[in-house]
UniProtKB/TrEMBL annotation:
Signal peptide: none annotated. GO terms for molecular function: (2E,6E)-farnesyl diphosphate synthase activity; metal ion binding. It comes from the Bacteria. Belongs to the FPP/GGPP synthase family. Pfam families: polyprenyl_synt. One of its GO terms (biological process) is terpenoid biosynthetic process. Its cofactor is Mg(2+). InterPro entries: Isoprenoid_synthase_dom_sf (IPR008949), Polyprenyl_synt (IPR000092), Polyprenyl_synt_CS (IPR033749), Prenyl_diphosphate_synthase (IPR053378). This is Farnesyl diphosphate synthase. Keywords: Isoprene biosynthesis, Magnesium, Metal-binding, Transferase. It is an enzyme of class 2 (transferase). GO terms for cellular component: cytoplasm. Its EC number is 2.5.1.10.
Length: 300
């Protein structure tokens, strides 16, 4: 439910990226009870090249709350978020959903394997995410809170509900309020959850968690507007997926409602609001600000 990499790399720490990639590889290893094609397809989808924005948000939020020592305990939450994100992409790409054949510059899971395998990959990633959270976050009470938070963000009232409404709105006229409602759930819920999980894993204060969730709300909204703009004016080789699909699928987007320039201005304003939300963290939140500014630059 997000864009693939652009030609400009996001300002992400290489050591943190390596931690995430290693953890994703480890979490996608299965014993002999997992059929070999299913295991291969899971790794194909989860480990495909990508920015890993959501797991980075988890770790950056943890570091902002608890310092560098808070990063490692938050890694299971970062892995779980990326698994949820990857599952949602696999299912969204299916013919019955958004019907895409290219994702992150490669054939989508159902094109590389088959539709049944793609459905099962999504099922496996969804359940594995909660296994990773439940067994990796300590203490157990905190793990339970993390599982609840992520389940709510990924469920019928958030990510899945937003996708359902998005499909129902195809070739129909909807207004700005309805469009915002769809993407507050379809895209924004996982952004907010990423920040909240990082704060929770680091045992951050309530005030810290609230500020980070507000940051995630504004950033997620801006990210979706930019994604819509890239579908109109991006370069397919840079974006890594088919462009112009929103128009072909009859989807209402921010550019179609607001126009390109107003959409760009709105995204810029949201990035400014996101950065303002975390002013209280001072220098500890500078990597989050840089990441937000990168999202804004993608629209230009």
């Amino acid at each position: 439910m997000s864009a693939a990499p652009t030609s400009e790399s996001p300002p992400l720490d290489a050591a943190r990226s390596a931690l995430i990639e290693a953890a994703l590889r480890q979490a996608s290893q299965f014993d002999a009870n997992c059929p070999s094609q299913l295991a291969e397809a899971i790794r194909y989808s989860l480990l495909a090249p990508g920015k890993r924005l959501r797991p980075h948000l988890v770790l950056l939020a943890a570091e902002a709350c608890g310092g560098p020592q808070a990063v490692e305990p938050a890694i299971p939450a970062a892995v779980a978020v990326e698994m949820i994100h990857a599952y949602s992409l696999v299912h969204d790409d299916l013919p019955a959903m958004d019907d895409d054949d290219l994702r992150r510059g490669r054939p989508t899971c159902h094109k590389q394997f088959d539709e049944a395998t793609a459905i099962l990959v999504g099922d496996a990633l969804l359940t594995r995410a909660f296994e990773v959270l439940a067994t990796g976050i300590q203490p157990g009470e905190r793990a339970a809170r993390c599982c609840t938070l992520l389940a709510q963000a990924a469920g019928a009232e958030a990510l899945v509900g937003g996708q359902a409404d998005d499909l129902a709105a195809e070739f129909r006229h909807i207004g700005l309020e309805r469009l915002q409602s769809i993407h507050r759930r379809k895209t924004g819920a996982l952004f907010r959850a990423s920040l909240a999980l990082g704060a929770l894993a680091a045992d951050g204060s309530g005030e810290q968690g609230q500020a980070l969730v507000l940051f995630g709300e504004k950033l997620g909204h801006a990210f979706q507007i930019v994604d819509d703009l890239l579908d109109v004016s991006g370069a397919e080789a840079n974006v890594g997926k088919r462009l112009g699909k929103d128009r072909r699928r009859g989807k209402v987007t921010y550019p179609s409602l607001l126009g390109v320039e107003t959409s760009r201005r709105t995204a810029s304003e949201l990035i400014d609001q996101a950065c303002q939300a975390i002013e209280s963290f001072g220098a500890a939140a500078q990597p989050l600000r840089e990441l937000a500014e990168f999202v804004g630059r993608r629209s230009r």
